[in-house]
Design goal:
The chain contains 5 helices and 4 strands.
Length: 144
């Protein structure tokens, strides 16, 4: 009987969670497909750099978002992409967000940043060159 309740609960989560993204209702912000929420504990820096490149290939722009201590990581990712010629800065938004702190049980203000980057003029050219280098490296390994 307990298993049936769990299964029923899981299926209702899937049904309720699936429809909320496109509707825009419910007061919350619709989840953007080209947004990367960066954490400085979960993944290495270049995971996010490469993911941002893939998102720019797919959507022509990417929004990097972070809270609190992860803001420095987002700025670093944006700077790497800009300095290597892959991205151009379109918009930077800063704000504070009230988040409930589990240990203290009261709301805490956290700094938030959102950086919108678009493809640079050289983006496709640079990505093609990087793909050629990767192919050349793979053939060298096969030959040796």
């Amino acid at each position: 009987m307990a298993m049936e309740q769990i299964t029923e609960g899981v299926s209702s989560i899937a049904l309720n969670g699936g429809g909320s993204g496109g509707g825009g209702g419910g007061g919350g912000e619709a989840v953007k497909k080209n947004r990367i929420q960066v954490s400085n504990t979960k993944k290495p820096l270049f995971f996010y750099v490469n993911l941002a490149k893939r998102y720019m290939q797919q959507y022509n722009e990417v929004e990097l978002s972070a809270l609190g201590m992860a803001i420095a990581t987002v700025v670093t990712i944006a700077e790497i992409l800009k300095n290597n010629g892959f991205a151009a800065e379109k918009k930077i938004t800063t704000s504070t967000v009230g988040i409930k702190d589990e240990s203290r049980g009261r709301p805490v203000q956290k700094a938030k940043i959102e950086i919108l980057l678009g493809k640079s003029e050289k983006f496709d050219e640079l990505m093609a060159a990087a793909a050629e280098q990767a192919d050349a490296g793979a053939t060298e390994e096969e030959q040796s």
